[in-house]
Specification:
mainly beta; globular; two-stranded antiparallel ribbon
Length: 68
């Protein structure tokens, strides 16, 4: 069985490596959030230090991914 990963572009995002605009894809792989640039193949995975816990208790947000 083929497992297709749904990838989406992040509008207005700039690649931290090549500085290209609108080339960053966001997708999940094995329940890990990942970023990848289609221009220079830069990639980054979400780690615990990149997750900021939500302070609002009325929402169901677990964390916010902040690329460095």
């Amino acid at each position: 069985m083929v497992n297709k990963t749904k990838k989406r572009f992040v509008a207005g995002a700039t690649c931290p490596k090549c500085r290209a605009l609108d080339t960053i894809m966001l997708y999940f792989e094995n329940n890990v959030e990942k970023l990848q640039c289609v221009e220079c193949d830069y990639s980054e995975s979400q780690t615990d230090k990149n997750v900021t816990k939500a302070t609002r208790t009325s929402e169901s947000v677990i964390g916010v991914f902040k690329p460095e």
